[in-house]
Write a structure and sequence with these properties.
Elements lengths: L1 H12 L1 H23 L5 H31 L4 H24 L5 H23 L7 H23 L2 H8 L3 H17 L2 H6 L6 H6 L4 H30 L1
Helix pairs in contact: 1-2, 2-3, 2-11, 3-4, 3-11, 4-5, 5-6, 6-8, 7-8, 8-11
Bound molecules: retinal.
């Protein structure tokens, strides 16, 4: 009973719990939207919309469990978080591939993006999950920097590398504009994650500004809503506008 009351009370006095609840519902709603709207776009976009729905759908299931884990323990659901990302971030790489496929994107490009993002996540997981008791700045910074190499690779590919060049050569202004918008998501939206990471015990924002580790989830939840739902909506708008 006490546990139930905790859940009922938490959203008004715990902003982190609030973002877990809203995040869960928003991801679920977005999935329904992408699945239903899949019927109103032309065939060549249906797979892209399905991938959008999978990204938010996989996240919704993980938010369901992370929310409970957090409300029950007050701790960061690190393992669930990284399982979610390990499935959803590669799917975002698949979106880049699908959008530029008509312009000649190869499977090789897709795999390079997937491997770079997997590197980013494995290093980030080691940084968080194996952070020594009480927090270690050298541990968090070392793995954070190693992770950033993977991030920068994806960022470079989206802005100046193969993805950017293929979008340019597609000759389709809707795809060009859409891929550029997704590149902005990678530059600005994805950059929110390292901010959350640095709030863990020993992290730069933790030791420097005293931001405690509940902020890790606050930043991750906000970033996930922006990036997963936002990415999907950009893909949706490319599909709708290039059909016109
Ligand atoms: C849906 C989930 C997404 C888009 C997750 C993206 C995650 C990142 C861009 C994480 C990046 C990190 C760094 C660049 C350094 C510190 C460790 C990470 C894993 C938080």
């Amino acid at each position: 009973m006490e546990f139930l009351l905790d859940i009922v009370n938490i959203p008004k006095d715990d902003p982190v719990a609030f973002t877990f609840f809203v995040g869960y519902m928003a991801m679920a709603a977005a999935s329904v939207f992408f699945i239903v709207e899949r019927n109103s776009v032309s065939d060549k976009w249906k797979l892209s919309l399905l991938v959008s729905a999978l990204i938010t759908g996989i996240a919704a299931v993980h938010y369901f469990y992370m929310r409970d884990y957090y409300t029950a323990t007050g701790a960061n659901p690190t393992a669930l978080r990284y399982i979610d990302w390990t499935l959803t971030v590669p799917l975002m790489c698949v979106e880049f591939y699908l959008l530029t496929k008509a312009a000649g994107a190869s499977k090789g490009l897709m795999w390079k993006l997937i491997i770079a993002s997997a590197w980013m996540l494995v290093a980030g997981y080691i940084g968080e999950a194996f952070n020594p008791e009480g927090g270690s700045t050298s541990h968090s910074v070392t793995w954070g920097i190693l992770s950033t190499f993977g991030y920068v690779y994806v960022l470079y590919t989206a802005w100046m590398g193969e993805v950017a060049k293929l979008a340019e050569s597609s000759g389709n202004p809707t795809v060009q504009k859409g891929v550029r918008t997704l590149a902005w998501f990678v530059l600005v939206g994805w950059a929110i994650y390292p901010i959350g990471y640095m709030c863990m015990p020993g992290g730069w924002l933790n030791t420097g500004l005293g931001w405690d580790s509940t902020n890790v989830d606050l930043f991750y939840n906000i970033a996930d809503a922006i990036n997963k739902i936002g990415f999907g909506l950009v893909v949706y708008s490319i599909a709708v506008n290039s059909d016109k």
